[in-house]
Design goal:
Elements (H helix, E strand, L loop, with lengths): L3 H4 E2 L6 H11 L6 E3 L5 E3 L2 H15 L4 E2 L6 E2 L1 H8 L3 H9 L6 E3 L2 E5 H28 L14
Antiparallel strand pairs: 1-4, 2-3, 5-7, 6-7
C-alpha cells in the first residue's frame, strides 16, 4: 500500500531560491544533463525531462507532489474518492465488470493504472455524449434561439 509520507515531495524541504534556480534550468529543453563525480555527462531523455520539469515547476509554485506507481492498489473507498463517486457506485461498477479489480481476501482492490484507464474511458464517453447533444441542438437550430436570422432582421 502507498504511504503518502514516503512518496510525497514537499517543497518546504527545498530552499525557495534553489527551487527558483531549478525552475530556470528546467525551463530550457535539452539544457539539463547529469554529471557524476568523475565528470561523466549523461543527458536526460526527453520524456523524463518533461516529468522533472513539471515536478520542479509545481514545487516552485509551492505545491507538493505525490509519486505513485501504476500498480499501486487502492481500497474501494480510496478509488471512489479519486473518481469523485460514492463507494457504492464504485462497487457497482466493479461488479458490472466496467473496471478491472482484484481481491485481497474478501476486500476489493483497484490499481491506479485501472483507475486511470476507467477515468479516460469515462471522460471520452462524456465528451462523445456532449458532442452528440451539441450536434442535435445545432441540427434543430436551437443553439442560439433568441438571435434573429438575416431573414427576420
Amino acid at each position: 500500500m502507498l504511504t503518502t509520507r514516503n512518496n510525497r515531495l514537499d517543497p518546504s524541504l527545498i530552499p525557495e531560491d534553489q527551487l527558483a534556480e531549478l525552475a530556470k534550468v528546467f525551463a530550457v529543453p535539452d539544457h539539463v544533463a547529469l554529471i557524476d563525480e568523475h565528470g561523466n555527462r549523461t543527458h536526460i531523455p526527453e520524456a523524463l525531462f518533461a516529468h522533472f520539469a513539471r515536478i520542479v515547476r509545481l514545487m516552485s509554485e509551492r505545491k507538493a507532489i505525490v509519486m505513485m506507481p501504476e500498480d499501486e492498489a487502492f481500497t474501494t473507498q480510496a478509488a471512489a474518492n479519486y473518481l469523485g463517486v460514492s463507494r457504492q457506485h464504485l462497487v457497482d461498477l466493479l461488479e458490472k465488470g466496467e473496471m478491472h479489480h482484484h481481491k485481497v481476501g474478501s476486500h476489493r482492490r483497484v490499481t491506479f493504472k485501472d483507475l486511470l484507464a476507467y477515468e479516460k474511458k469515462r471522460d471520452k464517453n462524456r465528451r462523445e455524449g456532449m458532442d452528440r447533444l451539441t450536434d442535435e441542438v445545432m441540427a434543430a437550430d436551437l443553439y442560439f434561439p433568441d438571435m434573429p436570422t438575416a431573414e427576420g432582421a
